[in-house]
Request: fold
Amino acid sequence: MPDVVTFPGARAPDRFRTVDSHGVRLAVHEWGDATAPPLLLAHGGFDFARTYDVFAPLLAEAGWRVVAWDQRGHGDSEHAPMYSWQADLRDALAVVDSVTDEPMPVVGHSKGGAVMVQFATALPHRLRALVNLDGLPGPGRMPDVPDHERTKMLAGDLAGWLDFRRGTLTKQRRPDTLDGLAERRAKMNPRLSPEWLRYLVSVGARQDADGWRWKIDPSLRLGGFGPWRPEWAMGRLPGLNVPLLAVLGRQPELMGWDTPPAAIEPNMPPGSRLVALDDVGHFVHIEAPHRVAALVLDFLEDVL
Amino acid sequence: MSSPTVTVRHNKVALALHLVREGEGRPLLHLHGLGERSPVTVPAHLAPWPGPVWALDFTGHGASTVPPGGGYSCELLMADTDAALAHLGPSTLYGRGLGAYVALLIAGARPDLVRGAILDDGTGLSGGGTEPPTPMVIQAPLPVSGPPDPYALVELSNDVRPPDYAATYARQASTLSGLDVAIVVTAVVRPPWLAAVAAEPGVRSVSRGDCTAVFASI
Reply:
């Protein structure tokens, strides 16, 4: 097993630091000139900042100081006692505060995109532009949204979740080989090359004595239930007062949000842009980093 | 009474579960309101309960862990309560305010373990209303001098409680518990979630003084 896995175009962050968000240590990764104008990247639920290892350098080469952080419990950030949308918003602000007081452009994928729509509503003075990568919840399902944000309400789900919570104190993620984890990730990313998948495992998992494990907190779990409704998030869109680019990955996938353009179009704020990529899945920045980076850079050049 | 408090674990949090009054038979588990802690003695209207009376301090409250960084939800407190039920076995629940809403959730989620739930007035009864308020982010770190954890006070007073969501839990409690009456409402104040619950079959409104009698004999 090689010590360092490489992939063409993938570049480790140029700088690493941590931010204390209300007692939770967050890992912050940066690419590009430290004095360049900053741009923030928010990853999706169950993902991690270094899924941007190809995408972020493309933005950095175009003249941005690219800042991405691992959300609490994800990647290299601390495993927190509790997780919620509100806590994610607070963590995002802690990271933003560590970068600049000035408004800056923000790119968010999946749940990270949806959280940043909330952020733009709560703190409009901190954003210059907002790019949402397949993170606008439609009437369909949202697999990476936390337990209490979901609408599904079945007795079995509830009992299953409570049973899971009873075991979280001692729970560990299942160890596997690097290739084994890459194969598991391939179920969510069916069009990625084995080399790219192996690279993602090498930065998103850690090597223990008994094998490789994803770094994510084992007390986090996909699926669930809760009072949240997708229309509440969609209801934030029309009132946004920053330039918005929304990119949809239309290939149906396990983790896909399946939000059709028709569900979003009536809610787009004035002057915003909607791009649907028919041949790309939910993880648009991983699957098509060059195309998506070009879309983002064109958009930022036009609106800023 | 010796060592009247036990510690139960919920993930990274140690929860204080207090034996307020010893007794034989099915326990009554008291769930406090938002910002409160467990009572030291049995409240007068619960005194007729024939069995032991226990009380749980929620995460961030009383003698339970105050975890860093917030992230509270009522669903998480429901899992706190489930950790207490894992220790106590089948129990009747009494909840004040926030604790009433949590008692409803766990009654629907663990209909085999919750042998009746009493929903009473108390702090945090309304939560954040039926729809999310304008999103806001706390800018400066809150002074953490808890308990109660200031993050609990902020986050659990904004917890969204749609009436149909609450009613679903009441329906599950009624249909899956096998009890003729699964939930008793003693609260005078009826925010929309509680009004919806009170209108469900298998839910009965009674006076505070009569609340324990409904479940004492089942």
